[in-house]
């Protein structure tokens, strides 16, 4: 082959590639959604009860794709999944750039707040949309809020408000708060303090848990002393990684219930949740994955379903139509929690009921009856529009 | 001890006989209610508004339909993945029908020969020949099929899929989907008007009722609800019924604990009747002078007088009453 001929054939090949990839990603009838996940440091296992889940989030996304495609059979739309796994500590930007270059626009991200920030900085001027199924940081919804990002999991502020509503209903007003050493625990405690103030709770005592060793064998002696001499209605624990919170139940000096990151826990999804057809989602998920659905799985399912719902209603897979519809007033997602789920325009946060779950029973679903709001009762949870510090 | 036991046994036999007798001689109709969490069937005498018997059936009983000759009840026992056949006079389970996995609701065709079953976990509608007790066909539909009905003129089977948000129009002869109508979020109950000209359906999350013109398969009306003192989020329409004259429609509003009365000619809400908690499914009395409701959270049924639009009574039946069927 002569040099020029060779060049021509390369050129043709490249063109063909271009055509085929654009057909693949942006054709009338097919849409490829990226699931972008970075490996996490596995926390120390303090209990052998629960298996470590390595595909949290991914299975929810997969179920969402399957559900979208079932609907797609009737609308002629097909959804495909592109999974990008970045190892723990590796750079997220390089693989991300590659995906953007190949025409991907919808990114379901299971990333830390800092990694998500890196991606959005990189993508500032591009037509991309991010569905954050990992973070619960209030800052990402407030001062550090991001354009073109929606958050599927309830923020810490929403969780705190959900808990405080229930505490007010029970009139368990005096809180003893125990805060772990991690930064996440301090953020969680901030959200609880904010909720306590909003709902007229008294934090009668706050103590830091600094014991860094595994307390499995010593909790029986340490916790009574740690909680001695304080009078309170409920012990609120901030221990997101689950390093010590479980040990408080039955071991406090005076008999008191536990809530927060352990005990009665505010969460977006739980295995005890069965109302509003939730059993159906639980069953379908278990059939697919062989395990219970996590919060990330639920977020991933919701994210993909949001894209699917917008595509169905708009009769289109065009990026801008989907993005605009998701953020519009017409959008309504059914999430098995009895209320239509929508996005807050000011922060990208998904409005949703927060479940208050104990290990084996669903105790309450917030917002509770009687907590009113002039526009949408779900906005009694978390930062409401007048409180928004989001400028983007 | 043994003596006592035998006395108790005898008493039970006599009592059971007496109750059965009572059931047979009671005037008026009999109401059958599936109890989702008790794995049982509650039997209520309508005239006296009394629970007369509770019998065990399969696991997680939900949808319930009376056979055309009124001799049998078909009950979807979801966790047993089957439909049980219960004799309406002996209350015994006398057989089962294949149903596909996890049957929830189903409808009987006007001829009484075929059942159309929603299999919510498998996204299928299963067609069952009641006489041969075999599956004729499975039609793939959207995610989580729930409400299902057969048009009285035998032309259509419609299936509503809750997560796909569509009504699937299945040609009853060919058993193929001919058309799909996109509707508001989480469609639940569907029912044809007696003249087969309209399809009424509820959307649980949108909180409304949609009326579709059947010949054109176009949406012609949407009806919203507003109840003073009840937040919009609590209004979650589920079961619904339209009377034979297309004069009134009745809609169970779930956790709003009310049944809406709709003027079916003007498509206007005329009022709300307070019933039990989380009102779920509805059934007419055969003369359509009364309406019966299952109230899932308060564990009872309500009896509504339709001539005066008044709630007459509630009857405690057992845990999580779900489906309801009435035998004349």
Plain-language structure description:
The complex is a heterodimer of chains A (392) and B (328). Chain A is α/β, with parallel strands linked by helices and 392 residues long. Chain A is built from 10 helices and 14 strands. The longest helix of chain A has 24 residues, at 3-26. Residues 6-26 of chain A have low confidence and may be disordered. Chain B is mainly beta. Helices cover 7% and strands 52% of the residues of chain B. Chain B has 1 helix and 28 strands. Chain B has one helix spanning 2-25; strands spanning 30-35, 40-45, 50-56, 61-66, 72-77, 82-87, 93-98, 103-108, 114-119, 124-129, 134-140, 145-150, 156-161, 166-171, 176-182, 187-192, 198-203, 208-213, 218-224, 240-242, 248-252, 258-263, 268-274, 279-284, 290-295, 300-305, 310-316, 321-327. Chain B has a 4-stranded antiparallel sheet, with helices on one face. Chain B has a 4-stranded antiparallel sheet with strand order 4-5-6-7, with no helix packed on it. Chain B has a 4-stranded antiparallel sheet with strand order 8-9-10-11, with no helix packed on it. The model of chain B is unreliable at 17-27 (pLDDT under 50). The interface between A and B is medium-sized, with 24 and 28 residues.
Strand order of the largest sheet of chain B: 3-2-1-28
Uncertain segments of chain B are: 17-27
Category from helices, strands and their pairing of chain B = mainly beta
Envelope shape of chain A: globular
How big a fraction of the residues of chain A is strand?
Answer: 15-25%
**Averaged pLDDT of chain A, please?**
90
Mean pLDDT of chain B: 92
Please state the CA-atom Rg of chain B, rounded to the nearest Å: 20 Å
Q: Helix count of chain B?
A: 1
- Chain pair with largest interface: A-B, 24 and 28 residues
Cα shape of chain B = globular
User: Main sheet of chain A: which strands, in order across?
Assistant: 2-1-3-4-5
The N- to C-terminal Cα distance of chain A equals 56 Å
Q: Main beta sheet of chain A, described?
A: 5 strands, parallel
Number of helices of chain A: 10
Which structural class is indicated by helix and strand composition of chain A?
A: alpha/beta
